[in-house]
Structure to design on (98 residues):
């Protein structure tokens, strides 16, 4: 499924809900509430992200996001917003080998 992400959007996922998408442009995914599992095509790692954590997602890659045992609220930010707000860039901890 190809989803065009508007960086002003957000998404709430139910416990155990999975979203599979390919995005056209790079953007920052920020977890506002909850805990999600994230995998990015070609990355080689899986990521667990909790509230307050974020990651820059590359363009033209298949991305899968799945919530853990709670509702999760996800915000989408432009990469420019990440720089302005001094959010951490690519998450490089809490990594689980795929």
């Amino acid at each position: 499924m190809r989803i065009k992400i508007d960086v002003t959007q957000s998404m709430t996922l139910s416990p155990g809900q999975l979203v599979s998408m390919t995005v056209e442009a790079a953007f920052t995914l920020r977890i506002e509430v909850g805990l999600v599992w994230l995998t990015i095509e070609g990355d080689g790692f899986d990521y667990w992200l909790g509230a307050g954590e974020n990651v820059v997602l590359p363009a033209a890659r298949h991305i899968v996001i799945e919530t853990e045992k709670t509702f999760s609220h996800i915000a989408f930010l432009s990469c420019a917003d990440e720089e302005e707000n001094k959010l951490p860039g690519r998450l490089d901890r809490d990594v689980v080998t795929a």
